[in-house]
Amino acid sequence: MAQDTISPVAARWIGRWLILIALMVYAMILIGGATRLTDSGLSITEWQPISGTLPPMGDAAWALEFEKYKATAEYQQQNYNMTMGEFQFIYWWEWGHRLFGRLIGLVAVGGFIWFAAKRWMDRKWTLRLLFLIALGGLQGFIGWWMVASGIGDTDRLDVAPYRLMTHFGLALFIIAVTAWFWFDLTGKRVVDVTKGARNLAMLLMGLIFVQMLTGALVAGLDAGRTYTDWPLMAGELVPSHYLEQGLGVRSLFEGRAATQFNHRFLAYAIWALSLWAAWSYRGSPLGRGFVILAVLVTAQALWGILTLISAAPLELALIHQGLGVIVMLASVYLAWAASPVRSQSEPLKAPV
FRET partner for 69 with CA separation of 20 to 30 A, picked from 56, 81, 190, 256? Predict the structure, then answer.
C-alpha cells in the first residue's frame, strides 16, 4: 500500500491478531515459569526445531531420551533416583513449553502472510510486524542458549541465571512491544501532559521492567525459597553476606542474598513511587492511570510478600509472575498514553 495509514478493516484485524499474540506470549510466560519452578527445563537436551515437534513414541524412544538426560549434571547430582514416570512429567512440561513457542511462531508468521496477501499493511506496519516476528525468532535462539548453559556445564544444576533473565526479559519486551503496537491502533493518547508526569510514567515503566528482571534472577537461583522471613532477611535488614565470598561483585547476579535483597528493595521503591505519583497527580490527565498502576503495584507487593513467607510454592509464584506482567503492561499503557505523539484530546481510558 502506498498510503501512510491503514484502513479501518485492516486496523481491526491486525489489532485482533496483536491481542492473540499478546495472550499467547502471556500464556507462554506462565508456562515458562511453571517449567522453571518444576525444574523441567533441562529434560530435553537437544534443540530440534522441526523433528522435536513430535514427542517420543514408544518405550525405546523414551528410554533414549532418559539416557540423554542422565548425562546432565542435574540428573547425576540431584535427580539420580528419578524414575521414568518422574522424567516423563518434567519432559512433558519442557516439550509443551517448546511446542507452544512454535505455535506462537506459526500464528505470527501466518498472520503476517495473510495481511500481506490482503495488502492491508503500509510500509510502517510491515516493518513493525517484521520486527515483532524477528523478536520471536530471536527468543527461540535465546531459549536454547539458556538451556545449553545447564547441559554443557558439568558443575551447573540449572540454567545460568543471567541467561534465564535474558530469556525472560526478551519475553517481556515482546509482549510490551505487542501491546504498544495495539495501543497505536486502538487507543487515544492524553493531551496536556506535563513533562514531569511524562518522565515519571517512563521512569515507572523502566523500573518495573528492571524489577521483573531481578525477579528472574531470584527465580533462577531459587533465592525466593532461601530467605523466607519478612521484613528482615535471616534476622538482618541488610544481609551480612550480601557480597558472597568467592563471588564478589558477581553476587549481584549470582548471589542468593544479593538478588533477593535487590528484588525486595526495588519493589519498595516502586511501591512508594507509584503511591506518590497517584497522590501527586490526582485530578491530572494522567491521574486515573497513576491510580490504577498504584493499586496494581500494591496488590503485587502484598502478593510477593505472601509468596515469600510461604517459601514460593508453585501456585503462588506463578500468580506473582502473572500479576507482575499485568503491572508491567499497565505501566506500558501509562507511558504510551503520556508519549508526545497526540491525536486528539481524550481522557485516559482503557482502549477498546
Answer: 256
* Closest by Cα among 215, 202, 196, 177 to 324: 215
Structure confidence at residue 343 (pLDDT):
46
What is the H or E stretch that residue 282 is in?
Answer: none
Distance CA 235, CA 258 (A): 15
CA distance 236 to 308: 16
Nearest of 167, 160, 139 to residue 42 by alpha carbon: 160
Beta bridge partners of 236: 233
> Are 352 and 185 contacting, i.e. CB atoms less than 8 angstroms apart?
no
pLDDT in tens, 143-175: 888 888 878 666 667 788 888 999 999 999 999
3-state SS class at 120: coil
pLDDT in tens, 37-83: 888 888 888 888 787 788 999 999 999 999 998 888 888 888 889 99
- Give the amino acid at 243: L
Distance CA 318, CA 117 (A): 39
Angle at 281 between CA 279 and CA 284, to 5 degrees: 140
DSSP state letters, 247-262: TGGGHHHH-HHHHHHH
Q: How far is CA 85 from the centre of its chain?
A: 30
Assign residue 246 a region: left if phi > 0, alpha if psi is -120 to 50, beta otherwise? left
264 burial level (CB within 10 Å; 0-12, 13-18, 19+): buried
Residue in this structure with the C-alpha cell 512440561, named with its chain if needed = 93
pTM tops 0.70 = yes
Give the distance from CA 197 to its chain's centroid. Answer: 26
* More confident of the two residues 132 and 344: 132
